[in-house]
Amino acid sequence: MSPRRARQARWITAIIIALAGLSLGAYYARRDATSGAEVITQPVTRGSIVEAVSATGTLEAVTTVQVGSQVSGTVQALHADFNSIVRKGELIATLEPSLLRSEAEQARANLTRAAAELERSKVVVADAASKLARTRELSARQLVPRTDLENAEVTLKSAEAQVKSAAAQVEQARASLTQAEVNLEKTRIFAPIDGIVVSRAVDVGQTVAASMQAPTLFSIAADLTRMRVNAGVDESDVGRIEAGQDVRFRVDAFPDEEFEGKVSQVRLQPIVQQNVVTYGVIIDVVNVERKLRPGMTANVTIEVVRRDDVLRVPNGALRFRPSAAALSALSEPADAGGSGDLAPAAQPAAGPRATAGPKVWVMQDGRLKAVAVKTGATDGVHTELVGGLDQGAEVVTEVKFAQASTTGSTTTTRSPLLQQQGPMGGGPPPGGPPR
After folding, report:
1. Which tens digit of pLDDT belongs to each residue from 47-62?
2. Which residue in 192, 169, 173 sits closest to 181, CA to CA?
3. Is 199 in the same domain as 209?
4. Structure pTM?
């Protein structure tokens, strides 16, 4: 064989080997892509579904009384402090009483003077009455003129009117004395209810002025074993809140502990903050251990719907839709993801107004099958399954690939022949471009 023909034979052989290698590589690549598909499934289980509304609220005592002072003065003594347990009628503060005591003494002196004036007026009345009697007797004998009789009568009536005026002054002085004594008594401040002092706003020596409004000295909570949460619920959720619903909440002070309560009231007054409308929801809480304190922020979860011992399907199965790559990898027809692939027993009713309801995918005889289901309440993780599947049925939630990642309808493939980018993805790898 000539050298020229030998070279041609070698070239032809090399081309044949290259074509065979490419065909073999394509075959193995396709086989790996199909055989590397992994179908992730989860079973239909039986359990509880709790649909809830989340909100934020503040803990407060059921009854809180602001104890103030009706009179002005300087704080002379404090008989209660923060966290003091007090009983109704117990002395908790005293104001300096000297000024009010002097006013009471002055009012008592005024009463004494008014009473003396009343007695004097009565004496005048008695004298005018005796003079009128003598004048009438003399007038009957015609020993005095008629005018003297009339003057005597006027004098008596004037004296009687003076008695009434003096009596009124006595009552006024007595009322002033009573008011002064009450004000003097108000310098001693007593607890109005049984409870615990949660706030003290004054110190000894501080002057309180009650001219316009009563200043607050203490805040007393009636009973901290029973508290309530005042939560603000968004207007979009308040229509689902009713009295008697169960509530669970947490506070930052005890992050690992969950507390319980019940909705007792949904208030009608709207609260508008930055164009956001919320409504107050009052939640009764039992605080026997006294861990909860007024003012704590509570992260509230209100149970709106609860379904116990029901079939439930993972929400990922309801969201799953096979992509074209997944169908190809599983040797499914390209239109298998359409509504025409529903299982015959679960086909929705046909008609011009029929709409596609929720469906899940199952592996049946090694193939993907769509099954129409009827759903109910959801808690964000599982959804109540009213009909369509039985307990234990495996539903598809994801399809994974060995070289391609498919979740739902998104497929991401990366070729090993592509040049790896730098740290920021915009330049060649360290060391410069390949040679």
Report:
1. 999 999 999 999 999 9
2. 173
3. yes
4. 0.63
